[in-house]
Amino acid sequence: MEPIPATQTKPIDWTLITRLTIELGHKSVLVCTSEQSEQPPSDELPTIKTLTADTAQQHQHPEAFVVVYDCIDTLSPANGQMLLGHLKNLISPNILVVTPTQSNWKLTDFIAMGFKAISSPLLKQIGYTGYYYDLCTYNHKRTWNNPKFWANPENFNKFRW
Prior knowledge:
Blueprint lengths: L13 H10 L4 E6 L13 E6 L13 E4 L7 H15 L2 E7 L6 H5 L4 E3 L2 H4 L3 E7 L13 H4 L10
Parallel strand pairs: 1-2, 1-3, 3-4
Antiparallel strand pairs: 4-6, 5-6
């Protein structure tokens, strides 16, 4: 995956970001982009904050929802993974990555980081794809993964090895 220059990215579609944020059930959003931009006033969303991919590592305040908009391709693969890891681990339990359909990043790259592809007509009509990470649902519960099957209490005092 080769990074592409930031000049090839489209201008931020604030209406799209607002609609996706509301569609996913959030009231505020932190938008991570490749270049610093003005945040628009929004009647629908009370809080829209912005930061660039370069300054995201310094951001330490928890946010309810983050949109990484059209900037993942401008980073090297290692820096892109570090950005998404930082956002997932320290900043937000809910992340939406919006990237061009013809991105250098493939579905398997996002799945490896716990993201799921989302189907959105809003994104399809402008040639973009969305990948969503939700801490609460990314790892389904397994029936075998609980203390009942670890300790084998029925075998206590029966076997010695």
